[in-house]
Predict the structure.
Amino acid sequence: MNRGGFWSDVSKYRVLLLMLLPAVLFFLLFAYIPMAGIVLAFKQFNYNGGIFGSPWNGLDNFRFFFESGDAWRVTRNTALYNIAFIIVNNVLQIAAAILLFEAARPFFRKIFQTMLFLPYFISWVVVGAIAYNLFNYDYGMLNSVLGWLGMEPIDVYNTAAYWPLLLVLISAWKALGYGTVMYLAAITGLDREMYEAAEIDGANIFQRIIHITIPNLMPTLIILVLLAIGNIFRGDFGMFYNMVGNNGILFSTTDVIDTYVFRALTANNDIGMSAAAGFYQSILGFVTILVANWAVRRYDKDRALF
């Protein structure tokens, strides 16, 4: 065995390895080293003992989390919202990409693509402010229009039933441009000879979309869905917190694991339970991605992540 093989490869690919180093350091510092904090889920934290010196309390933090009745509610909300986001966002993004590719000329395609992409760069803080000015009961735009039409105002911020639909629509609006770009890039990379052959055989535009475009988008769709499923138990904290804030009236339909952990940590100062909820969330995500990847491998192992 060549003893100098490893170091010779390091020397040979040193430029590529240096380019990779920032990403490695990022995940090391912000993903792997913080894993040591998992021990807080099994401790009664106090500031004198710190993370590793606090006394152990076994599964008491988990027991309190599940017996409080909040575990099922926040788990259900997190999973259902992310399932809705995955389905609605991907359907709209694929439809928008196909529409831009088939209906728009290259010049107008770039304009519409830019317009769709703009909401992605808007901060959730700004989106929350826009939503508040739209749906505020006293002077929001929605109730102002309803008042002009002689209709009763809608109390959006005191009615939890409205928020599942609102959050799904707002998420779709904000993510539409980003996903459309990815699917449009996949469509652009398809072999044009397939379309030309289908057109010669008499296939119309809808037949070409159904039998050529959509089937060839499936590998991209599967990869994106698998990556999204890995985060199915992770709510978008920026979205939920800035849209709802600490409005307890809406928690029944808007509280997710991330906002629950944040509130347990900041409002209740319960570090042990917040760590337990975060650990529970990570285990759910890990198991979910394993199951989803296993299911894809059973269908087509070439399209699985691993």
Q: What stands out?
A: The first helix runs from residue 5 to 12. Residues 258 and 264 are 10 Å apart (CA to CA). DSSP finds 15 helices and no strands in the chain. The chain has a mean pLDDT of 88.
